[in-house]
Design brief:
The protein is mainly alpha-helical and 133 residues long. It folds into two domains: 67 residues, Arc Repressor Mutant, subunit A (Orthogonal Bundle), CATH 1.10.10; 41 residues. The chain has five helices and two strands; from the N terminus they run H-H-H-E-E-H-H. It has a two-stranded antiparallel ribbon. Strand 1 and strand 2 form a beta hairpin.
Length: 133
Amino acid sequence: MRIQVQFDLGQPVYVQIMDQVKSAAASGALQAGEPLPGIRPLAEQLRVNRNTVAKAYFELEREGVIETRPGKGCFLRNGQSRFRKAARTEMLLPQVDAVVVQAHHLQIPDEEVLQLLQERLTHFQNSRETSRS
């Protein structure tokens, strides 16, 4: 698993680390029981303070995403199937919120937003089926 951070993103580095670990777990790129990079090596790789990585790992452990095994490191917890669905949904929420806010500013009724969303989903599904043929 490779973690990258952007300092000009306006989002705290520890949150970026957390999001990437959650994303890797949700996508299956990181499997249950797999080790995460060590705190010190990851901090050196990212060129951040070790406390930043430690804070990300602490928060991930508090949320039940990872577990720390003394002397061995941090690992993705077993039984993350429920987390995986929640993480995928959580990753989508900012985009959905942005659409809702934009529709509000454009004064588009809820029914039209829902209809547009359904049309786009259908279009996407049809495109996928066409490309498979």
